[in-house]
Design goal:
It contains 5 helices and 4 strands, in the order H-H-E-E-H-H-E-E-H. A 4-stranded antiparallel beta sheet has the order 2-1-4-3. With 183 residues, it is α+β, with helices and mostly antiparallel strands. The chain is globular and about 50 Å long. The protein has a domain of 125 residues: Beta-Lactamase (2-Layer Sandwich).
Length: 183
């Protein structure tokens, strides 16, 4: 066996042993979503207690928003993101614009990233405003109405909804109807 093959074989054996040891070792980090945290939530070393929107809740938000859109005779793209800003549920109503898909998702992300309606961010991002050009951050934000944080009864933000496909006032009304089902 040549020297380079010997070194390669030794590397493969050591790599396999390291991987096996790593896989067999007990996990140092455990995450249990259903277990209460011990101590104060802000105590050093304690994990954060983050609440998140469930799939059932996300579907209820979408259904309420769709119902409002149908009452208003609108064709909407509707997106719900979770507490981390990740897409949780999406609906493109029949006939809704393809271009509004990305806008609905970005409105929801904008509302979640800043925990305020996307239209409020828009007011702050006008030329000369304190957040001017913020819409170019975070891979693109949407800073006009239609994105609303989804909050629990205690005010905890667990996600957000974005609605797009009509005027910004209509988009906001549809999103508000969706967000209002979570109590």
């Amino acid at each position: 066996m040549t020297r380079s093959r010997s070194i390669l074989a030794l590397g493969l054996v050591l790599g396999s042993l390291t991987t096996a040891a790593w896989l067999a070792a007990p996990s140092r980090v455990a995450v249990a979503q259903d277990q209460p945290l011990k101590g104060k939530p802000d105590a050093p070393g304690d994990a954060l207690n983050t609440k998140d929107i469930s799939l059932d809740q996300a579907h209820a938000v979408i259904m309420a928003a769709m119902q409002k859109a149908q009452e208003m005779k609108l064709k909407q793209d509707l997106a719900v993101v979770d507490a981390g800003g990740n897409l949780k549920a999406f609906v493109r109503m029949d006939g809704a614009w393809l271009g509004s898909i990305d806008i609905a998702i970005k409105k929801a992300k904008t509302a979640r990233y800043f925990d305020m309606p996307s239209g409020e961010i828009g007011k702050l991002s006008q030329p000369g405003g304190p957040l001017y050009q913020i819409e170019v951050s975070n891979r693109g934000l949407i800073t006009f109405p239609g994105g609303i944080p989804i909050k629990t009864s205690d005010g905890t933000v667990i996600g957000a909804i974005g609605s797009s496909g009509s005027t910004v006032d209509n988009d906001h009304a549809v999103a508000a109807a969706g967000a209002s089902v979570i109590k």
